[in-house]
Amino acid sequence: MAEVDGKVVGNSEVTRGTLTDEFYHGKLGILLLKEFRNQGIGHEMINTLVEESRKAGLKTIELEVFATNEQAVHVYETAGFRRVGKIPKKIFRNGKFTDVIVMAIEL
């Protein structure tokens, strides 16, 4: 969780795989309120998640991000994530389809 002046402004997690053969792999999810973006909070959250995942014995982490969210893609790349694939038209929102980029990092 991220707080600013006692207000929760973001939440994030890495979920470990539940199957035996995915036990060393995690999936990252993050949410940060728009008005608190571009302040380094998201980057710090990601770095903390990566470090804690490493300490927990994970070997890889994956995430999905809207292909139209170039800013988020840049933040993830800065943290060491790399594009490993794309899912065309995964999201249907506001009457249009959006591709999703799959990114991963090896710890």
Describe it.
With 107 residues, the protein is an alpha+beta fold. The protein is built from 2 helices and 6 strands. It has helices spanning 41-55, 70-78, and strands spanning 2-4, 7-16, 25-32, 60-66, 82-93, 96-106. A 6-stranded mixed beta sheet has the order 1-2-3-4-6-5, with helices on one face. The mean pLDDT is 96.
- Portion of residues within helices: 10-25%
Cα-atom radius of gyration: 14 Å
The total count of strands amounts to: 6
Mean pLDDT comes to: 96
Distance between the termini: 22 Å
Q: Can you tell me the CATH topology?
A: Aminopeptidase
Count of all domains? 1
Brief summary:
The chain is α+β, with helices and mostly antiparallel strands and 107 residues long. It has helices at residues 41-55, 70-78; strands at 2-4, 7-16, 25-32, 60-66, 82-93, 96-106. It has a single domain (2-106), classed as Aminopeptidase (3-Layer(aba) Sandwich).
Q: What is the secondary structure topology, with strand pairs?
A:
Blueprint lengths: L1 E3 L2 E10 L8 E8 L8 H15 L4 E7 L3 H9 L3 E12 L2 E11 L1
Parallel strand pairs: 3-4
Antiparallel strand pairs: 1-2, 2-3, 4-6, 5-6
Offer a few descriptive terms:
107 residues, alpha+beta, Aminopeptidase
